[in-house]
Amino acid sequence: MTKRLMSAVALLSVFAVVGGAASAEAACQDAVVLVHGNAGKPADFDNTYNELLRRGYAAGDIFRPNWGSKTCAACNDHDGSELVAVKDAINQALARSCTGKIDVIGHSMGVTLSIKSILDLGVAGRVDAFVGIAGAYRGLWSCGTYPYNVVTSTCGYHGLSISSPLLKGIAGKRMASRIYSIKSNSDQIVCSTLVCTVNGVHSSSIDNENASYTYNTGHFGLLTDTATRQADLIQ
Q1: Using an 8 Å Cβ cutoff, are 63 and 32 in contact?
Q2: Which residues contact 56 (CB under 8 A, 6 or more apart)?
Q3: Phi and psi for 29 in degrees, rounded to 5?
Q4: Exposure letters 93-124 (e unless 16+ CB within 10 A, then b)
Q5: Are the C-beta atoms of 217 and 186 separated by less than 8 Å?
Q6: 1-42: per-residue pLDDT in tens?
Q7: How far apart are CA 200 and CA 83, in angstroms?
């Protein structure tokens, strides 16, 4: 082999190594946690999951905890086994993430459950983006106002009544570097009393958010019909 040919081969080898390293770096993305709502299931996030796969995320980097009773929505709250399932998914995602950070997307009660989990774990500094979809961050008027709340777990001390200890405990606290909310004024859960606001602010809006997006769709359409927006926000 001539010196000139050897040099060319060596140069190509360098390009291959550099190119491979660049490809590996480009493929490294935050692991993602998708948290379904009350009495929901991981498959509720199928549109988002498939959109992330389409964008090059590995299936192993997407975590979808399965939490809570599916037959008694009023029995679920933000404590006990519900919290454990979400915390476990967050810890698994952090351990897996090649960037050392994660993104979290929650729907409905999954929004407040995710926030509580992140704050309890003390990992807000390792969450790059948080997207809350159709959450009741400021509470549900249908649950009443604490302590004169509807007497169910979902609306109680660890629940979504206005001014509950749970909601007071997460108010104003950052759970990520970037925070977004997706909401609707036609949300049949958050706006079930025909009032979407608490103290003049939409209940799905999150303190310290970078942006909020309003769609003319219902509670579940906010999840299934905004997969592209969700994926855009965490990238």
Answers
A1: yes
A2: 27, 29
A3: -130, 160
A4: bbeebeeebbbbbbbbbbbbbbbbbbeebebe
A5: yes
A6: 554 544 444 443 444 444 444 444 457 999 999 999 999 999
A7: 29
